[in-house]
Every structure is written in structure tokens, then in C-alpha cells.
Design a protein that fits this description.
Blueprint lengths: L1 E8 L6 H9 L7 H6 L6 E7 L2 E7 L7 H8 L4 E7 L6 H12 L5 E6 L6 H15 L9 E3 L8 H14 L11 E2 L2 E5 L3 E7 L4 E3 L3 E5 L3 E10 L2 E3 L1 E3 L3 E7 L11 E3 L7 E10 L11 E6 L2 E9 L11 E12 L6 E6 L5 E9 L8 H12 L3 H11 L4 E2 H8 L3 H10 L2 E5 L3 E5 H21 L6 E2 L7 H10 L3 E4 L2 E4 L8 H17 L6 H7 L4 H14 L2 E5 L2 E4 H12 L6 E2 H8 L3 H13 L3 E4 L2 E4 L1
Parallel strand pairs: 1-3, 1-4, 4-5, 5-6
Antiparallel strand pairs: 2-3, 7-16, 8-9, 9-15, 10-14, 11-12, 11-16, 12-13, 12-15, 17-20, 17-22, 18-19, 18-21, 19-20, 21-22, 23-25, 24-25, 26-28, 27-28, 29-30, 31-33, 32-33
Helix pairs in contact: 8-10, 11-12, 13-15, 17-18
């Protein structure tokens, strides 16, 4: 069954609540004060199933003092029922409600010309003409105008039909995306505990799901769900939903909070968007304080004009950054309404384009960036974010900035030509950046070989690249080869000059002739006749070749001497031996015996048992 939310709009006492009651049989005035005063103060809800479509009604208050409550309900509606009393026609709150609906991006609706029983045919016709002129050029231009009376029942069937027809053509909300439920009520129900209600803006929520309450960040469990009073196992986008939450008091939750998937999204204190100032508003100045409404939330904000510092004229549009007093969980595509700081009247609205705006960017560049974002889909945004970040954009950031689920982001990233790298977390990296990294790496290694011709390669840490980006650059490079912790050009070979080759032979001979009682490393280096840096490079060549073996930080032995020692140990396999016995066999002092035995232990050729060792 298709679920469509119908919101009422119109001036106070034009019969919105009575019309909803006549259509559905449900009284949306639930507060004692509402019944005593005969006006709607807070949001009311009702529903109607007709021709395979479930219409959920959100009845909003019309009095100017309760516009804040009206805004909290208007953000969840798909179709508007603009109620205009035939005996009064268009009034101030009619205009403000209609402006809000237009600014929130509504595209479908029906006009209910209520109280038609109170006027004659001429006045009814005059009201129709005035309404047609008023909505001309707007989304309600050509919409059905149904003369109806909530009191007598005249026109109700026609109005139901018009609403169903309008709902049939309205776009269904995205049930496959991340669930978002802006809270508009929180209360306690005996036997159940804490209940919150709202219109599920997107996604699907299930019983036993874990949810995160933003902006508080608290995580809670869904105990039960109801849709229009019926218990369900899951609720989908477009449904009026009551959520029974475990482990929290109703007083800890309030209108303006939002239920979202845990750990995916975050609150932001600055957003950028496109904005339209109403023709009847005063010019909007740079740094002006305003009331910012989004979802069911409201906070104060400061305006930062990006297209220029001249005040925005009435009826104009601009790109604006808003600095929010209270952080909110906003995503690209979210609609917002601005009300003047004082007196508090609606002055305009727009759509969020960026919820993590760059901080170090000129106003003109920021405005140009927003113009580009206005026409970008998810794939384009991912490419932009990946190009702006170094070395790429983290998957968690991409999710939080776009509102798309991780699986959707990964699928779109692949289609956009972005490469997925696993570092501390998954990164989306432009392929061109990996090619650039490969070219830079080749240059770095080449320069290293020029500086250090005797070194077998450049240490990985000198690349300046993260581990993941380095591996990707190596895979993309036709020139650079990794050998353990060293990087070298595939064409590079250590080539010794005459004096270097002679020094290498001298050093190797000294270690070989020393056997297990080799001279100190410093003495061998000094005997080479080369400067210390070149001599150390030759020593590293011998170690890399395996001609020499580093037994301990202070002791290097010739591989041949160690091979002879292993053969000697084989004859002592049956008998445990002590350090003095080992010294006697090998003819070396304790200075050499202890580090060599510890080396043999590490190789598991020997095993220590108390004061003795055995050959394994």
C-alpha cells in the first residue's frame, strides 16, 4: 500500500481540523486547551485508507503564534490540503502557510474551499477567481479546487477523490535509504513506556533495531512499532510512525531530535545552501541573526552571504552559509525555513547543499562550488570530496556528508572510477592521485639512488606515503620494486668502483679470518680506507648478500664461521653443555660466547635449560 502524508495548511478558524475529522472520523485536537479554545495549538494526526492508498493527515495549527508547531509538521508532508474558508477567502496565515509549503519544495496539493454552505454561488465563484489568481505560477496552479463543507458533508466525496488522485501521482519516499525519523512528539504510555512519533522521512525501521538519537548521540533499542495505531514489525518511509523505545524517559527526548542509524551520521554546526528570500521580506544582511527551521528542529543561526556582501533584496536568491547555534543532523537535500529574528515572521527558505563546508575558502569560490553541487548526483559528490581530501575521502565521511548508506557509496565510488584503499579505514581515492603517487615515488627512489649509489634501496618510510597509498602506488608503478622494507628502481644495481670493490674484499676477509672472534665493527670499517658513510654502505651490501650475519647489535659474524659452528654442535646433540664447555670447544671468550649462544637460541638450534643448553 502506498503511504502518502497529507498536511493541512491555512488560516486560523478556516476549518482545517473539522475538515480532517469529517474526512477521517478522527478528532486531531487532543489537548484540553485545544478543545476549550476551539483552535489547534499543536500538531494533530489522522489517517484514511482509500483505493489502495493510505493517507496520513498532519493537521497543523493556523494561528500565527503557533507557526513553529506548523513548521514541525509541514516538513514531513508529501501533499498539501490548503484550506480556505469561502466566506473569508485568503488571509495572512493562508499566505504564510502557502509560502512555507512552496519553500519546502512541495509539488502537489488540493485546495479545499471550506464553509461553502455559508456563501451563495456568486461569492463562491469570486473566491475561486481570487484563489486561481493567487496560486498562478505556483505548484498549485491548476490544482483541484473543491467546494466543501465540513459541517454539512457537501463535497467530501469529491475532496477524497481529489486527494487520492493527487496522492497517486506523488512520488513515494525512499524506503531503501537510511532511516530518518524527526521526532515531533514524546510521551509516556502506561504499560509501554516512552513513545516518540514522527513521519518516517526515509528508509525502514524494524522492531529490535538499535537507533541513535541525534543530536544527543544516545543509542536506544526499538521495543515496539505502530503505524496509524496498528502494531507492526517494521515501518517504511512515508508512514506516520510511533516508536516505543527502551531504556529512556520521555522527558529525555523532545521535538527536534531525530532517530537515525547508529554510528553513520553526525550533527553539524555549519551548512551551506541555496536560499530564496520572499518578496515581502526585508533585505537580508550579511551576519544577520535568524531562526533556522529544519525537520522538526529549530535553532538560531547567523547568515554568511557568499555571493557578495550587499544585502539580498526581497524576492532574490543566493548561496548562503549558516552558522548554527545548536548542531543539527542535516544532510544535502534537506529543506529549511528561515524566520526573522525579531519580529518572528517567515522570510524565506531553501535547500542544504553542503553539510561540511570547507573552512579555508574564499566566498566567491564557495559560491561557485555550491553552484556545481546543485546539479551533482551522488557520484559527482564522491569524486569532488575525494579530490578535495588528502589522500582521499574516508568512507565514514562520505556517508555522513551524503546521507547514503555505505553499500551505496561503495557501489557509486566504483562507478565513478574511485579506488578503494584500506588504511586505518576505507578511503575513496581518485585513480589520478595514485598515478601521481607512483610517478612521485619513482622520482624519489631515483633521487635516492643518485645520493646513495651503494645503498640497495630507499627505506619505505622516506616515501612520505601512507601504507595503503604506497602499496597502490607500487602496484601502479612500472619502475619501482619493493624488497622488504627497501624500495629500488627495477633497473638499479649496486656498482662498485675500484677502491670500493677492494675495500669490500678487505672487509669480507677480516670477518672470515676472525672466525667467531671477529674484530669490532668500527675497526673493520676503519680498515676499509673509505669514509665512514661509504664503508657502512659496503657493510650493508655484505649483510644483504648473506655473506655476513648480524648476531647481535654489537656483533657480526661471517656466514662461513656460523656454518662451521652448526656442524660442530651436531656432534654434541646428546649431551647438555654449559657456557664454559662451549667456550672450550670454540676457543672464544665470554664476550663472544654469550651473544652467539643467544643467537642460536633465537634460531632454535639450541635450547636453554637452567645453566645448560641442549642442541635441538
Amino acid at each position: 500500500m502506498k503511504n502518502i502524508i497529507v498536511g493541512t495548511a491555512g488560516h486560523i478558524d478556516h476549518g482545517k481540523t473539522s475538515l480532517v475529522r469529517a474526512l477521517t472520523g478522527i478528532d486531531t485536537d487532543r489537548l484540553k486547551e485545544e478543545k476549550e479554545r476551539g483552535i489547534s495549538i499543536d500538531l494533530g494526526f489522522a489517517h484514511l485508507e482509500q483505493e489502495g492508498i493510505r493517507l496520513g493527515f498532519v493537521d497543523v495549527p493556523g494561528h500565527e503564534r503557533f507557526i513553529r508547531n506548523m513548521l514541525a509538521g509541514a516538513v514531513g508532508i508529501d501533499v498539501v490540503m490548503l484550506v480556505i474558508a469561502a466566506d473569508e477567502s485568503i488571509k495572512p496565515q493562508t499566505r504564510e502557510h502557502f509560502d512555507i509549503c512552496r519553500l519546502l519544495g512541495l509539488r502537489a496539493g488540493v485546495i479545499a474551499l471550506n464553509k461553502s454552505d455559508l456563501v451563495d454561488a456568486d461569492l463562491l465563484g469570486l473566491a475561486r477567481l481570487e484563489i486561481a489568481e493567487y496560486v498562478q505560477g505556483t505548484f498549485l496552479d491548476g490544482a483541484p479546487v473543491v467546494a466543501v463543507s465540513a459541517k454539512t458533508g457537501h463535497g467530501l466525496a469529491e475532496l477524497r477523490g481529489a486527494l487520492v488522485g493527487c496522492a497517486r501521482g506523488a512520488n513515494a519516499r525512499d524506503a531503501d535509504g537510511a532511516f530518518r525519523l524527526p521526532i515531533d512528539r514524546s510521551f509516556t504510555l502506561r504499560g509501554f513506556g516512552t513513545i516518540v512519533t514522527g513521519t518516517l522521512a526515509s528508509g525502514t525501521i524494524h522492531v529490535e533495531d538499535e537507533v541513535e538519537v541525534l543530536p544527543s548521540g544516545r543509542r536506544l533499542r526499538v521495543r515496539n512499532l505502530q503505524v496509524h495505531g496498528a502494531k507492526v514489525e517494521s515501518a517504511t518511509a512515508g508512514q506516520r510512525t510511533a516508536v516505543n523505545l527502551a531504556g529512556v524517559e520521555a522527558t529525555e527526548l523532545r521535538r527536534g531530535m531525530t532517530l537515525m542509524p547508529p554510528g553513520l551520521f553526525r550533527t553539524v554546526s555549519a551548512v551551506e545552501g541555496s536560499f530564496e528570500l520572499l518578496p515581502g521580506a526585508s533585505p537580508l544582511k550579511h551576519r544577520a541573526p535568524v531562526h533556522f527551521h529544519a525537520g522538526t528542529a529549530e535553532t538560531e543561526a547567523e547568515v554568511r552571504l557568499l555571493d557578495g556582501l550587499q544585502p539580498l533584496p526581497p524576492g532574490g536568491s543566493a548561496h548562503i552559509r549558516f552558522l548554527l547555534k545548536e548542531a543539527l543532523p542535516l544532510l544535502p537535500g534537506d529543506r529549511f525555513i528561515l524566520r526573522k529574528y525579531s519580529p518572528v515572521v517567515t522570510i524565506g527558505g531553501g535547500v542544504v547543499l553542503e553539510n561540511s563546508p570547507p573552512t579555508r575558502i574564499r566566498r566567491a569560490a564557495a559560491a561557485g562550488r555550491l553552484r556545481a553541487l546543485e546539479t551533482m548526483g551522488l557520484r559527482g559528490r564522491l569524486v569532488l570530496y575525494a579530490e578535495e581530501a588528502r589522500p582521499g575521502v574516508a568512507l565514514s565521511d562520505a556517508v555522513a556528508r551524503t546521507g547514503a548508506l555505505p553499500g551505496t557509496v561503495l557501489a557509486e565510488a566504483g562507478g565513478a572510477g574511485l579506488v578503494l584503499l584500506k588504511d586505518e579505514e576505507v578511503l575513496l581515492v581518485p585513480r589520478a592521485r595514485i598515478v601521481d603517487a607512483a610517478q612521485t615515488l619513482s622520482s624519489l627512489v631515483s633521487e635516492f639512488h643518485c645520493r646513495e649509489p651503494l645503498s640497495p634501496g630507499m627505506p619505505r618510510r622516506q616515501s612520505g606515503l601512507s601504507a595503503a597509498l604506497l602499496e597502490a602506488a607500487l602496484a601502479a608503478s612500472p619502475e619501482v620494486l619493493a624488497e622488504g622494507e627497501l624500495l629500488r628502481l627495477k633497473s638499479f644495481r649496486v656498482r662498485l668502483r675500484g677502491e670500493e670493490d677492494e675495500a669490500l674484499q678487505t672487509m669480507e676477509s677480516l670477518f672470515r679470518e676472525g672466525g667467531l672472534a671477529v674484530p669490532a665493527e668500527k675497526e673493520v670499517l676503519a680498515s676499509s680506507g673509505l669514509d665512514p658513510r661509504r664503508a657502512q654502505a659496503l657493510l650493508q651490501i655484505l649483510l644483504k648478500q648473506g655473506t655476513l650475519v648480524r648476531v647481535s647489535p654489537d656483533l657480526i659474524c661471517h656466514a662461513g664461521a656460523l656454518a662451521s659452528l652448526k656442524e660442530q654442535l651436531a656432534s654434541h646433540r646428546e649431551h647438555p653443555f654449559s657456557v664454559p664447555e662451549f667456550k672450550a670447544w670454540t676457543g672464544i671468550s665470554r664476550k663472544y660466547a654469550i651473544p652467539i649462544l643467544e643467537f642460536l637460541d633465537r634460531l632454535r638450534l639450541t635450547q636453554r635449560r637452567g645453566d645448560k643448553r641442549i642442541v635441538v
